[in-house]
Amino acid sequence: MSKTESRGPLYHVLRAQQFDRALLDRLCDLTTRIRKVAKVKEGADYLQSLLSNKRAILYFTQPSTRTFLSFQNACHILGIRTSEIRDPSTSSEYKGESPEDAIRTFSSYVDVIIMRSPIAGFADRTAAMLDETDRPVPVINAGSGKDQHPTQALLDIYTLYRSFKDRGGIDGKTIAMVGDLARGRTVRSLSYLMKNYRGVRLIFVAPPSRRMGDDIKGFLDKMGIPWKETEDLAGILPEVDAVYMTRLQDEYDEAGESKKIDYDKFAFRPEHLEILPETAIVMHPLPRRNELHPGVDKDPRAKYWRQERNGMWMRVAILAAIFGIEKDILDPYGRSSHV
Ligand code: NCD
After folding, report:
1. Residues carrying an active site annotation
2. Is domain 5-148+311-338 classified as CATH 3.30.1490.20?
3. Lower Cβ count inside 10 Å, N or C end of the chain?
4. What is the pLDDT of residues 258-275, one digit of tens each?
5. Distance of CA 286 from the midpoint of ligand 1 (Å)
């Protein structure tokens, strides 16, 4: 059997489209289980023993706080040792080495590559390149330019799943995505994941120059997922189950074009809580600027700080699935001895 044939259900994590409902449900259940096991010291010690023979590199050539730290801590929760490169000017790329060769070098030393890059599709190319070598390792896309952020979408799904646990789950819910949807990779990946849920409706609230891309709209049409587009945030809030705020992605500006956008219209403020249904939730991948007022934080419907923490637990589940240790966490032995 070749190395690629012997892979389990999760190996590379490159794009949201690769996930089906069964895998999403499994990852959500596993995340909940991990959170519980990690609560007591014996459980935390047990988790740390599971992958203590593995090493990871975090190769992040775009700024990151949450994704970097949550992946690093997720590795540590499972005992995976980590090394990192966050600035190519400190690596041999500075001497003219190609990023492809740099990555091949990482694969000589570690068992998984977790990478963030400004280049769309680079993680996919990396994975394909490594698959041709005699030491392929899994690649996790931790953000690829304006294109995708699949692990963020998974933690967003987990946040929705938890929030709607007693209300029939994610199926049938209306989710509004607000802000710079043209360049926001989190909302793009999350839109792709919606193919796995029945009866979901999406509402895109964006400035005219920053509307959701036609590729995503075409995908939703093909999947039969209804969507609509508006600039009127207050107008749609009474009909949503979740509102997902995003920041202006002006780091991608070519000529300061974001300055012309009136982003105040795409901000969620305390007065919006009055028209948001009691059972609805507010999400944000963070970091935030003015588009999400801190006065909203104390409202029980504000889920973004929990969403951030969910990120670490979901990333533990992703690593556990990649390394095939789900059973060690879920099985009756683990259950009786670590809760
Ligand atoms: C997001 C990102 O990097 O795309 N942040 C994150 O990973 N939590 C969102 C953003 O930067 O606006």
Report:
1. 66-67, 95, 116, 149
2. no
3. N
4. 999 999 999 999 999 999
5. 6
pLDDT given for residue 92 in this prediction? 75
pLDDT at site 93: 73
Nearest atom (ligand 1) to Cα of 149? 4
Model pTM above 0.85: yes
Q: State in Å: Cα 339 to ligand 1 middle.
A: 34
Q: How many CA atoms lie within 13 A of 129 on its CB side?
A: 18
224's CB contacts (< 8 A; 6+ apart) are none
Distance 90 CA to ligand 1 centre (A): 24
What is d(CA 221, CA 321) in angstroms, rounded to the nearest whole number? 31
Q: Which helix (H) or strand (E) holds 122?
A: helix 122-131
DSSP string for residues in 232-287:
-HHHHGGG-SEEEE----GGG-SSSGGGGS-GGGG-B-GGGGGTS-TT-EEE--S-
**In angstroms, rounded to a whole number, what is the distance separating the alpha carbons of residues 103 and 116?**
12
Ligand 1 nearest atom to the CA of residue 249, by list position: 12
pLDDT of residue 212: 98
DSSP-assigned beta bridge partners for residue 83: 57
CATH code for the domain defined by 150-308: 3.40.50.1370
Domain boundaries, the chain: 5-148+311-338, 150-308
Q: Name every protein residue with a CB atom under 6 angstroms from any ligand 1 atom.
A: 66-67, 143, 149, 152, 185-186, 246-247, 285-287
List, for residues 149-183, the tens digit of each pLDDT value. 999 999 999 999 999 999 999 999 999 999 999 99
Structure tokens at 190: 């999350």
How far is it, in rounded angstroms, from Cα 286 to Cα 267? 14
- Partners of residue 5 on adjacent β-strands: none
